[in-house]
Amino acid sequence: MKILLVEDEAELVRTLTQSLGTLGIQVEGRGDGASADAALQQHAYDVVVLDLALPRLPGLEVLRRLRQRNDTVPVLVLTASGDITDRVYGLNAGADDYLAKPFELSELEARLRALHRRRLKSAHSVLAVGALALDTISRRFTVGGQPLELPPREHDLLEALMINAGRPVNKLLLADRLRSSDSVLSHDALEVYVHRLRRRIEGSGAAIHTLRGLGYLLEAADASPA
Ligand code: CA
Questions:
Q1: pLDDT (tens digit, 9 = 90+) per residue, 127-183?
Q2: How far is the CA of 98 from the centre of ligand 1 (A)?
Q3: Cα–Cα distances in angstroms (integers) from residue 76 to residues 9, 19, 113, in the given order
Q4: pLDDT tens for residues 173-222?
Q5: Per the CB 3.0–4.6 Å rule, which of 30, 73, 74, 214 could disulfide with 168?
Q6: Which CATH number among 3.10.20.70, 3.60.15.10, 3.40.50.2300, 3.40.50.300 corresponds to the domain 2-121?
Q7: Which fold has domain 126-220?
Q8: CA of 220 to the centre of ligand 1 (A)
Q9: Distance (Å, rounded) from C-alpha 161 to C-alpha 216?
């Protein structure tokens, strides 16, 4: 799972990045609202953790813009302890959950996993691009109803592209997702996987486009890249 943590307390970002990292949750940190807004327009995350009191752009505005773009990524809002106003505004603006500071790491982890699970289950149980389909619960691919078996890394890569179909997915994020526990995946290696995947899904009606500076995008083969 990859999350965006928007929080201006640098020390909290540092600790959470480290402690969530050991739990297998990758954290990308942003210290202000404006850079969070920019990151959310360029990259895909599984869950967003959003502090409301932020420099440059308030958290609620980041959230409002996100939902205006019809981005359904789950958002967990961090609120000051006992501040009901924040909570109500956050939920009204499209937050999925909230957590009052200070919180226990285990509580945050449980909320993140629940949001991620809920999204995978409810949002789309079967995703389709052309004749290529992904059952997000069983995590199986099919082409025209026939099973498409893929090696693990190609599977993970196609899954990340499929969940974000129609939106570019950043190469660094993909490389991050595909890395093994001790080695970072190089861009060259990522390109090799993409190349193989393109051949495997040939004729499925789905195509992987390279968008310079933005990453890879999966969409129907007859559509032109954005
Ligand atoms: Ca803050």
A1: 899 999 998 778 899 999 899 999 988 999 999 999 889 888 888 878 877 776 557
A2: 14
A3: 17, 18, 11
A4: 788 777 765 577 888 889 999 999 999 999 999 999 999 988 999 999 87
A5: 214
A6: 3.40.50.2300
A7: Arc Repressor Mutant, subunit A (1.10.10)
A8: 41
A9: 8
- 9 alpha carbon to ligand 1 midpoint, in Å? 6
Expressed in angstroms and rounded, the spacing between residue 170 Cα and the centre of ligand 1 is 27
* 2-121 and 126-220 share one fold: no
| Ligand 1 center–CA 86 separation, angstroms | 12
Domain ranges of the chain: 2-121, 126-220
DSSP state of 186: P
Q: What are phi and psi of 127, to 5 degrees?
A: -100, 145
**At 113, phi and psi to the nearest 5?**
-65, -40
Gap from CA of 82 to ligand 1 centroid (Å):
15
Which residues are in the CB-under-5-Å shell of ion ligand 1? Answer: 8, 51, 53
